[in-house]
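Troubleshooting: if your tokenizer reports a length mismatch, compare against these two reference records.
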Amino acid sequence: MTQHGGRDYLAIPGPSVMPDAVLRTMHRASPNIYEGELIDMVAGIIPDLKKVAGTAHHATIYIGNGHAAWEAALSNVVEEGDHVLGLYNGRFGFGWAEMAEGLGVTVESLDFGMKTPVDATRLEEALRADKEGRIKAVLCTHVDTSTSVKNNIAEVRAAMDAAGHGALLMVDCIASMGCDRFEMDAWGADVAITASQKGLMVPPGMGFVFFNDRAAARRAEMLRVSRYWDWTPRANPDFFYQYFAGTAPTHHLYGLRASLDMIHAEGMEQVWARHKMLASAIWAACDAWAAVGPLKLNVADPEHRSCAVTALHVGMPHGVNLRRWCEQNAGITLGIGLGMSTDEDPKGEGFFRIGHMGHINRQMVLGTLGSMEAAFSANDVPRGQGALDAAAKVLAG
């Protein structure tokens, strides 16, 4: 039985906390899907989505989760028999590659482990070795949600350019968009994808695919693309229903309108700065705890960490015990150690994650860290002192 009052807090890396403004606007009767305010609203949503992605090119909306966005993006630029190069820093990099294999695409792989970002030199060498130009696309996660590793997309693009390779750069921004700085056009991404349930602060159910003219040209060369996944009519609809290949996700769209209003009222620079400050406070607390005892940040270099999610290792049985204590006694749900299994810990239960994305502020972060301090104490986990003071100092700056 739980021993807390008040609201529960889902501190996992998605679905993220939904703002009251999003919840209120979704609590309405179904709208007319043929004319009126919904049609006008969506026309304004598209340019505001592009601002979040940092692109002047094309934006599309799919009814589905992040996995749907993976398949949608792939389906428009690669077909059975094509080759792609997958870059891996965790479970979700592998997941996108597996989606490509399911479409009959051959995946060549570069695995950089679970703690470090893409090595641009290795990437350049791999592309230079592709003398025949087999590789049609490079698949890269901006942030792998399982490990919290953040890749430098501008460096990935530079390595591709240095190799003189014509592959498309496709970037998974599901965990990062609206949290970590991402600039699609400035950094040279050809395709970027995200989903509604993380930095965009809307319930799961919508995926987004952004693409530039290079990717559109590749789509024009395809023999066929599923009518549902085809991004061409979605990006350039003659009729409203073509945005969605059918009925619109009406209430999700109202929620998205509210969340985009909040994001742009704050400003993208300020959104990124807020996430960086809050993440830095969490890291400062974790560094203090890690001075004594088993807790370790999964990513050692702060420059390689996401500002949306932090993966941690504390070992068994502490990982499970800490999560359960926080949920049952403080109403805070921490993320599981997804895809982080080892020989000694096959279920990855010695790992856990803190989600700090979207609609969060100082008191939410301090509440999470204070609850974790209590959980450490309740479970007799050895740790360094001064964690909350270290976090407070960052947040006071």
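Reference record two:
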Amino acid sequence: MTKNQNAIYDARTLGTGKMLTLGLQHMFAMFGATVLVPVITGLSMSATLLFAGLGTLLFHLLTKMKVPAFLGSSFAFLGGYAAVVSMGEAQGLSAAQSLPYACIGVFSAGILYFVLAGLIAAYGVRKVMRFFPPIVTGPIIIAIGLTLSGSAIQNCNSNWWIALLAIVIIIVCNIWGRKMIKIIPILLGVLGSYVVAACFGLCDFTPVKEAAWLGVPFHWEDTAFHVFANPNWGLVLSAIIAIVPISLATMMEHIGDMCAISSTTGENYLADPGLHRTLMGDGLATMLASLFGAPANTTYGENTGVLNLTRVFDPRVIRIAAVFAIILSFCPKFSALIACMPASTIGGVSLVLYGMISAVGVRNVVENQADFTNSRNVLILAFILVLAIGIKYGAGDAINLGFTSLSGLAVAALVGITLNAVLPGKDYEFGSNPQGDKAVDFEINPSLRK
């Protein structure tokens, strides 16, 4: 029997009580990062939990119930949401009115997962991945973190002491924590600074008192469907162009996650059920979530860490966690409690998170040993970074092309992909460096990767 088969056999002998406990542990592991995305973006908290659960179940269905992966909110699209909100506000829309347009962009990004899955199924992963090397995806990831950094500082400015407390807790738990403590540093940073802020009277819990115990997880006006009641087609196109290129980084993250989960469990999920199936599962979960006003989904490193900790690899445990998330999504009072989190807590956590995102981009370039004696690589890196950051802070988030607006990230990604395609000397081959292939990971605890 393989290691994975042994793990499944062990899980079946645990009994219902222990299986439920393991499911709760997996929900607890994904929780801090998953709820942080709607807190930062303004998307629906309840919808986020609902479609994290439903997306996970859908992913398991498409992957033949074999892959023990949980799908939670993706941090990679934060820059895209911010760019679309900025473009919407420039046209007189509020942030709440602009977010459904961003969701249309995320839906379109999900479609790209199917395109890549089809290409991989037809031509093989190595041929396809030559067009998306680390010299393109790495700088894009670096730019995502750097373009978001200003918003983190703005939130920290509301109360630097609370922000610093969140930062210290995350660092301590991530560096010196053991077992579950090391897996959930974001959640502990949020809880610790939130509790201290509440003790000092910095939180208004009136919305929690007024919220109902049971309610519908999403509202029509927050969904992508609501846009088409009175659409701004220019903003629709701008949102698609701004967000779709970001999916290049998230698809690389997905491939890295599949490599990590395969390494942890001892099963080759890239071969069975196949990378094309896992990509389709991730893409379809993202498309479904975005339609109903929830963030894009991605496979979660925190839950891979729990797999490594417990050595129970039965995918049913992950599906139990998904059901718990769905149940919790129907409690508006819980969502209101999260929404009352002080801006300083969000700022402190975001400061670490955005820095880690940029650091992951550096890691992706370094671990794949990108050759910077090669002029083509230097040019690609230079154009991506300068365009993304320059347009963000020098042109008011986006440049107007007349028929649409393009965010700095979108321009940088399109230019980087084009330069890599046309300039001679492509030297990246997926699969030749397993450590490098797993180097794209937006989570806060990359040290848990195997």
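Descriptive notes for reference record two:
- Strands lie at 71-73, 297-299, 398-400, 405-407.
- The chain is about 70% helix and 5% strand.
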